[in-house]
Every structure is written in C-alpha cells, then in structure tokens.
Write a structure and sequence with these properties.
The complex is a heterodimer.
Chain A lengths: L4 H28 L2 H9 L1 H33 L4 H15 L2 H12 L6 H6 L8 H25 L3 H9 L4 H12 L1 H16 L3 H6 L10 H11 L1 H25 L7
Chain B lengths: L3 E8 L4 E8 L2 E6 L6 H9 L6 E6 L2 E5 L4 E2 L7 E4 L11 H10 L5 H14 L15 H13 L5 E5 L7 H18 L2 E6 L2 H6 L3 E6 L2 E6 L1 H6 L4 H6 L3 E10 L2 E6 L4 E2 L9 E7 L5 E3 L8 E14 L2 E7 L3 E7 H6 L8 E7 L4 E4 L1
Parallel strand pairs in B: 3-9, 3-10, 7-8, 8-9
Antiparallel strand pairs in B: 1-2, 1-4, 4-5, 5-6, 10-11, 12-13, 12-15, 13-14, 15-21, 16-20, 17-18, 17-20, 18-19
Helix pairs in contact in B: 2-3, 2-4, 4-5
The chains are: A mainly alpha, B alpha+beta.
C-alpha cells in the first residue's frame, strides 16, 4: 500500500498522456465527419460500392479463415515443444512482414508471371486485380493472427475434458466437436468479428496485390486514400465512417468475448 | 474370468514404471505415496499414454501388446475412468453429462433418457438432473462423474483418488456411498489412493506401489501385520524404531538409536542399520515390569493419551517414542492414567519385525 508517491504520479502521468495520444486523433476525426456530411456521402454510389466491397471481401474471407485457421489452431494447441515453436514462428512471418512487402510477395506468387500464376492462368484463373485478390490478401494477413489467438483459446480448455470424452467412447473428432469447440464458442465468435475488423482496415497489401479499381477492388481504406489526393474533406468523412464501423465491431467483440477464461 | 491382466513398462522422470498387476471383479486398491506412478499407470491402462513395452488384457480382449503392435485407442477400450478433478463437461447439465456416452452411440433419444433416469435414480441424484454441473457440491459432482462413467457399461473401472478433492466433512459420506455402490457392481475396479482411511473401506485387495513398482500385495490386514516398506508402515501408524542390528557369535540384538536393546524376528536381516516395526495394538502397558516369557520392555512416560471409542491411544516417551493402543477396559482397570504417568511398554519378540534400511 505504501507505494512511493512520486512513482505513482509518474505512472498516472504516462497513462494520461497515452490516453490523450489515443483519444485526441479519434475525437478530431469524429468531429470532422459530422452527421451532416456523412449522410450525403452514404448516398453516393462510389462510396456505397467501396463499402460493399469492404464488407463483402471481409465476409468472403471469413469461411476460408475458419476452414484453414481453426484446424491449425486446434492442432497447434495440442502439440508441444520444438515443433510448436517452429510452427508458431512460421505463423509470425506474415505478422512481421510490412503490408506492402506482403502485397509484393503475393504478386510474385499468384501474379501473372508469379510462381503459380501460369498454372492458375491455365485453368482460367486470373487472380491479381480482382475481388478474389482482395480476399486472398485478407486471408494472408489476417489468418496468422486468427490462428494465434484461437490457439490460446484452445490452450485454455482442460485436456482432461477431452480425455474423459474419449474414455466415454468419443472419437477425437467427436471430442473436438462436442467438447472443445462448444467450450470456446464465445471466444470464437469474438475472433470472427476481430478478423472482420482487421480485414476492413487492410490497405498496403490490397493496393499492391489487388489494385485500386473502384467497383472491383477498391475498399473503403483505398477510397480514403484516393479521396485524400483530390478532396481531403471527403477523406475525413469516409475516415470517420470507417472509424465508426470499427468502434461498432470492437463493441461487439467486447460484448461477446467471454468475461473469464474458459475453465 | 473378466478381469484385467497387465504388464507394462513406461519411463517416468525419476524411474521406470514396471508394473505387473491383475484386477479381478470387485475393488482393488492401489495405494502409494505421491509420485509413485499411480496416475501414470491409470493413463497407460486407459490408453491415454503408450507403454514402452508390455501387454494389457481385459477379459478376452487384448488392449495393448507391444510385440503384436496392438494398441486400441481409449474410445475402444471400454474402460471407465473417473478423474481426480472429475472432468465434468462444464457446458452441459447433469443429464447431458450423464447421457454423453450413450449419445455417441446412435441410441434413440427416448431410450437414452430412460437409461439416464435409471442411472441417476440408482445413484440417488435424480433431483440434480437438470442442474448445471458448475453449481454442484464436491460430493454431488463425484456422483455425477460416476454416473456418467457407469452408464457406458465399462468392463474396467478406474478411480483416481476419488475423495481427494472433497472437503473432509463430505469425504466420509462419499466413501460409504462409493463402498455401497461398488460393492453392488462387481466390475473390476482399480481405486487409486494415498489415503489410509480409504484403504480401510476397501480392504480385501490392496496393492502398494512405490517408485514405479508394486512392492506389496494382499489384504489390508496382511499389510498392517507385515508392512514391507516404510511407506506402508507409516500410513498404518505402525511404530518404526531406527537403530542397528548387532551380531555376537550366534546372538543377534537390535540396538535402537536411543540405546534400547530389543529382540525381534531377525530372519534374513543382516547386521548393520535396520528398522524395527511393531504395531500399536501389539504394545501392552504395565505399571510394574512383568516377568516371564522373553519380551521387550521399554520404560517411559505418557505424553499423550487419546480415547478413540473403545480404544485408547497412548504415546509413550522413552528412549524412543512409542505408540500403544489398548482397550478402554484395560485403561479403566489401570486407573485411567493420564499424561505424565510412568509406565512400561511391553511387546513380544515375535511381534517385532526388523528390516534392513
């Protein structure tokens, strides 16, 4: 209880400064995007298109994120030691990659002259500069984070519960479906929203790999970038809109996420 | 015929688990100190870990055979296990927990409900059916865990320290209940514990495990009479006196570290450091030294006297500490002596077992 008074003051001051650093720009942006400017903006077709592409690409990315990420996360949480550390490092690779570089890498892999681009072209698939490219960019950037957080969720499930299920006659798959999965369901719902929020904010990777084509690959983030060059006021309003969407998603995550760790 | 035969080897951190054990219908208690390998053995039997070598046979079914490369997964072994922390499914109700095993087996819903009702009724917990398992008391949770396991008709039942997680007040009641239920079932059951009181309830067949090996097997009574290790002697409350065995010509004598010269059963004991074991109920107390047949006599002063029903437990401080247990009548006849009284503790030579340490 007898903490040095000066030290407490330093802690409080640092906290206050940090809070200002976070809140000031947010408030400034919200002030710039008043309801009066937001409403007419929402009626413009190119804004509606960008909004639609933003939401569509994030939603389309969600099933593959779950399909690839969930088994990976569960598998990862069930192994230990060196192999786990190696696989986790592999997951961290896209996390530390600058988004622009990730876009370049994706182009070199899936682009027309990329590693598998020719192969894909042979079966009639041209990925770059399409909605599919936006989805792949989201998948590439977001899935590692998703796997990482879901691994922690599964780590929180007592392994004895699965052992008990096995001994009652459940196959490992049944034990997963009926015990582990239901136990983390709230956490998974929160992670899904988190993944959507992350996808919505993506910029660098998308602009390089998918381009900035209004009506095709231009998401809200890209639309803001375009608007900023010609009409900053519109960029501010769009920014406020994007911020509102993010705040909404954050609220949803906080509401859904389990209050206490899974037993 | 339908028992468990197992012979397994499995490396543990400190030593190797090497166990040769058979479990017949009814309860066999596996007693051992913490870290003796009890829980590891249960996991091997259940198929949750894989033995390095050996064979596990349940009835006529081979569950594991290192040579024949047979290793049935846990879900095919038909072994029921109640974990120490019970591992009830927290997101399911008592009914759903109990129904879990049957619901995996394409049994009709109505039939499952009938089975569950019958099982809950049998174990006396029908009133809990719709409760969430997270709201139950320790004893109730124990009963649900057993119901959930028994409903799958296991051919072998493994109980890992079934009363360890309970508070002392609930422990006695659950032990009595467990004893009644298990006595009725006659399923081969291996009950793991480090608690002597639990052994007293299931006293017919006891196996003692220490440092990964079964060191003694027999009834509780045999164990108490002839403890073959420190651990067994200690849990039974048996007096252990440290000292050494000396040999002069053909005469062997046990000299305690307190200096008492004692006689005991010296068969196969080598001269050198040794321990003498004598059960409290073999120690008689006298106010004057008795003469007659060869006996060990140790004078001492009473430092503690506890009346336990019709028995009186007396701790005597002599050259060494010695616990005697005499009948209430004997104590009354000796004038209800109290602490501070000078007495003579006497035990027969043939009741004192000596082992090398």
């Amino acid at each position: 209880m007898n903490r040095p008074r000066l030290f407490s003051l330093v802690l409080a001051a640092a906290g206050l400064l940090l809070a200002l650093l976070i809140l000031l720009p947010i408030i400034a942006l919200l002030l710039a995007g008043s309801p009066g400017t937001l409403l007419p903006l929402m009626l413009r077709s190119e804004v509606q298109q960008a909004l639609w592409i933003t939401l569509l690409s994030s939603l389309l990315a969600l099933p593959p994120i779950f399909l690839l990420g969930l088994p990976a996360a569960y598998g990862l949480s069930r192994i230990n030691g060196k192999l786990r550390r190696i696989l986790e490092t592999l997951l961290e690779l896209p996390m530390v990659m600058p988004p622009i570089v990730a876009g370049l890498a994706l182009l070199l892999a899936f682009g027309r002259r990329g590693l598998v681009g020719g192969l894909l072209a042979d079966i009639g698939l041209r990925i770059p500069f399409s909605l599919l490219a936006v989805v792949i960019a989201i998948l590439f950037v977001v899935t590692p984070y998703f796997v990482r957080r879901c691994t922690l969720l599964f780590d929180g499930v007592n392994p004895k519960l699965e052992d008990a299920a096995l001994l009652l006659g459940a196959s490992p798959f049944q034990a997963f479906m009926r015990i582990s999965l239901p136990l983390v369901r709230r956490g998974l719902a929160a992670e899904a929203i988190m993944a959507i929020a992350q996808g919505i904010g993506l910029f660098g990777t998308i602009i390089l790999f998918a381009g900035n084509l209004p009506g095709h690959t231009q998401t809200l983030s890209l639309a803001i970038y375009t608007a900023f060059e010609s009409d900053p006021q519109q960029a501010f309003s769009l920014g406020a809109l994007l911020l509102l969407i993010s705040l909404l998603l954050l609220t949803a995550v906080k509401w859904i996420a389990p209050q206490e760790a899974v037993q | 015929m339908s028992g468990l035969e197992c012979r397994v080897q499995y490396p543990l951190a400190q030593y190797e688990l090497v166990v040769d054990l058979s479990v017949k219908p009814g309860v066999t208690v596996l007693l051992g100190p913490n870290g003796a390998g009890k829980s590891s053995l249960l996991r091997l039997l259940a198929g949750l870990s894989k033995p390095r070598a050996g064979r596990i046979k349940l009835g006529h079914r081979l569950l594991f055979d290192a040579h024949k490369k047979i290793d049935l997964p846990p879900e095919q072994r038909r072994i029921g296990m109640v974990f120490q922390d019970l591992a009830l499914f927290p997101h399911l109700s008592v009914r759903q927990n109990t129904a879990f095993g049957l619901s995996l087996r394409r049994v009709a819903k109505a039939k499952i409900n009938l089975h569950v009702d019958a099982m809950l009724d049998k174990l006396g917990i029908s009133q809990l059916a719709e409760r969430s398992v997270t709201t139950l008391s320790g004893g109730e949770r124990q009963k649900v865990a057993l119901a959930r396991t028994l409903i799958t008709d296991p051919e072998l039942l493994l109980l890992d320290e079934p009363t360890a997680a309970l508070d002392p007040a609930a422990r006695g009641a659950i032990r009595r209940w467990l004893h009644a239920i298990l006595g009725e079932l006659q399923i081969p059951t291996l009950l793991v514990t480090h608690d002597a009181e639990e052994v007293a309830w299931f006293r017919k067949r006891v196996a003692v495990i220490e440092k990964g090996q079964i060191v003694q097997r027999g009834s509780y009574h045999q164990l108490l009479r002839e403890p073959q290790s420190d651990f067994v002697a200690r849990f039974a409350g048996i007096n252990l006196i440290n000292g050494e065995l000396r040999e002069q010509g053909n005469e062997k004598t046990f000299i305690s570290s307190g200096g008492s010269q004692l006689q005991g059963i010296f068969d196969g004991v080598l001269p050198g450091p040794a321990t003498l074991a004598v059960a409290p109920w073999e120690v008689a107390l006298f106010t004057v030294p008795p003469g007659g047949s060869p006996q060990n006599v140790i004078p001492g002063r009473v430092i503690e006297r506890i009346v336990l029903g019709d028995r009186v437990r007396v701790t005597l401080l002599a050259a060494e500490k010695l616990v005697a247990e005499i009948s209430l009548n004997a104590w009354l006849q000796m004038g209800e002596f109290g602490e501070g009284t000078e007495l003579y503790a006497v035990f027969k030579t043939r009741e004192a077992r000596v082992m090398n340490t």
